[in-house]
Amino acid sequence: MTYDKRQEKLWAAEIKYYAARAIYNKRDQRTKIRKVTWQEWWESRFGESYTLYIDKMKARPGSGLSLHEFFAEVGEL
After folding, report:
1. 34-43: per-residue pLDDT in tens?
2. According to the model, what pLDDT value does residue 77 have?
3. Contact 13/76 with Cβ under 8 angstroms?
4. DSSP character at residue 56
5. What DSSP string describes 3-28?
6. I want to staple 36 with a disulfide (CB 3.0 to 4.6 A). Which of 32, 40, 65, 68 is the partner?
7. Is residue 71 a contact partner of residue 6, using CB atoms and an 8 Å limit?
8. How much is the pTM?
């Protein structure tokens, strides 16, 4: 099975999105191993400001766009 670049970018955008969701409530707590906050971990992992990413996701229109359509609209794909 072969995957194209667009599918790879979609998977990367989904990983980023779900990682941001997973740490939202514990973003100010420290990780056990590296002793940095979860927010700092996310920023080092994805190379983007966590708060700006969250703000961008909160501004996501509730018009029934799927994540795939939204990522294509904001240029993540």
Report:
1. 889 999 999 9
2. 56
3. yes
4. H
5. --HHHHHHHHHHHHHHHHHHHGGGTT
6. 40
7. no
8. 0.78
